[in-house]
Design brief:
77% of the residues lie in helices and 0% in strands. By secondary structure, it is an all-alpha fold. The chain has one domain: de novo design (two linked rop proteins) (Up-down Bundle), CATH 1.20.1440.20. α1 runs antiparallel to α2 and α2 packs antiparallel against α3. The protein is rod-shaped and about 90 Å long. The protein starts with a helix and ends in a 13-residue tail after the last helix.
């Protein structure tokens, strides 16, 4: 009698392990997919920035420093590797874009340029998508990390060497009070 009970317990234990393992794999893959969505939006942002810089360059002869900072921050953000480094460099890029938009407000001719306004709207829209994708990613990371830490999932996670995922956390620039810039443009 002990033989069938023991066999049933071993089979149940095996299926329990498979269930937890598959759930952890699914969560890890969801985190990876969410990171890919952030990466797509960041690429879109990086592609838009040279267009807006080129569009305003002729009007802003005295603001070369601002434009150079945007281009430099974009290059650093595009070259960043890893979640933390990307989060920090993207925060710096956001700060330089905010500064560019503030400077642009001093040039009425830019406000009347349909091309510049369209590019600015696309960039603002992309910033909103990035914020949503980042929040979604961080939510998935939280769920995944929780599963890695709770019993009994932590036993399976440890046995199969599952690694936690890193949050896409705000840099110092993102923690500061927002200035009038990306996402906060006046409708003059």
């Amino acid at each position: 009698m002990a033989g069938p009970v023991l066999s049933a317990a071993i089979v149940l234990f095996f299926f329990w392990m498979v269930f937890i393992y598959n759930r952890l794999v699914r969560l890890r893959n969801d985190v990876g997919s969410a990171w890919s969505q952030i990466d797509v939006q960041l690429k879109r942002r990086h592609d838009l920035i040279p267009n807006i810089v080129a569009a305003v360059k002729g009007y802003m002869d005295f603001e070369r420093d601002t434009l150079e900072r945007v281009v430099s921050a974009r290059a650093a953000a595009a070259a960043a590797v890893g979640v933390h480094e990307k989060a920090v460099s993207e925060g710096r890029l956001t700060g330089t874009i905010d500064r560019l938009f503030m400077v642009m407000e001093n040039y009425p001719v830019l406000k009347s340029s349909e091309n510049v306004m369209q590019l600015q709207e696309e960039l603002v829209s992309t910033e909103n998508r990035i914020a949503f994708a980042r929040q979604f990613y961080n939510d998935l990371v939280a769920n995944y990390r929780t599963k890695l830490d709770v019993f009994p999932d932590n036993i399976i996670a440890s046995f199969f060497s599952f690694q936690g995922a890193e949050y896409f956390s705000a840099g110092e620039e993102d923690r500061a009070l927002p200035s009038r810039g990306v996402g906060m443009r006046r409708n003059d």
